[in-house]
Model the fold of this input.
Amino acid sequence: MSRKKFLISLLAAFVISFFFKEYHTRLTHSSSNMRTEREVLQTHSDTLKCSIYLSSHSGTRVGYHYEIMRRFSRSHDFTLKYVPINDTVSVWDMLTGNQTDILALNIIRDPIPKSLTGKLCITPRITPLGEVWIMMKNRCPWHLNLVHWLTLFRQNPQYPRFRSRFLPSSPDRCPYDSLLRAVSRPLGWDWRILRAVMYQESKYRMNAHSAKGAIGLMQMKESTARDMKVKDLYDPEENVKGAARYFAFLRRNMHITHLPEEEEIHFVLAAYNAGMTRIQKDREQAALDGKDPDIWSEVAPYTPSQTQKYVETIKTRYLDWITSSE
Done:
């Protein structure tokens, strides 16, 4: 081989080697970037935390936000976890402190602090009242995907029907009626009894939280939830099914299944409000005084006035619904 051909071969080998190394470096870098992106998304793939900060009279709009968040989470293999608002921490600190990923609020009533200008991602309005979802830019790689998903969700032919379940809010319109129908069947009660309880307890707000620690639509305490096998009291389906199981538990353990349905319901509602032990003692005292412990009207005067009003309010609302449907 001549010296000229040797030099050309050597140069060609060098060029090939250079481009091979450059290609390998770029491929490795690209793969690293892909891994990094996947890792960022993976941090959100297990749990997507959400909080809803709306006024106490927001009613079913709370459930509307939650249900849309739940559907988005399911479509992207996230597990949705509701994080209640902490009265001792501002909602903005919850967001910046990574306590929640998505914050739903009324941006008109609660404008963004100047200190967070440019640091947040904001969705288009979820409701006409100025309610939006807000996220931290550095922790929401799925923001644009979320906005795109919301657009497609609203274009779905089934969306108007879905929306009408929740909006507008009204005592006579409950988005959980089909669920209440299902859980009422084992009890043998008219499902509207359970709806009246739900409205009385939470005004249909899935994130309702009382000063005594009762949570959710039908206001169950965590101790009762554990006994009824409820893992997430903020999940409407779990909460309502747990409440129905508790009704059945009260009926069974108060030994009142032999009573007429109306009396049975009265005593179960009273026990749901005041506690089974208290109502059983009141029945015993009524019997000692010569009253019939199986008739609510004769036991009621022994129960707390709040409980008497509770039972009467639920009964009245139920009868109103019955009358209006005839």
The longest helix spans residues 3-45. The radius of gyration is 29 Å. Strands lie at 47-53, 79-82, 102-106, 120-122, 131-136.
